[in-house]
Amino acid sequence: MQLQDSGVQYSRWDDSSRDEVSAAAVSSTEEASSWESSHSRFSRKLCSGKLGIAMKVLGGMAIFWAVFILGYVTGYFVHK
Q: In 1-80, where does DSSP find H-type helix?
């Protein structure tokens, strides 16, 4: 998969003033493909199989406890 040249252009004319903004991002195919392959290997390993399930369970537990502690501390100071 190759990245296409992408760009953003904005132009506005207002009576006597003229504003122009343009930006373009161009990246080489080698950098994009190497990043894609390493990213897909990384995400495949962490998001599927037994390791993926373990990561999802641990992430869910961490979020649960963070919200629980935040609620506990908030409730303590509200009802103090």
A: 29-47, 49-78
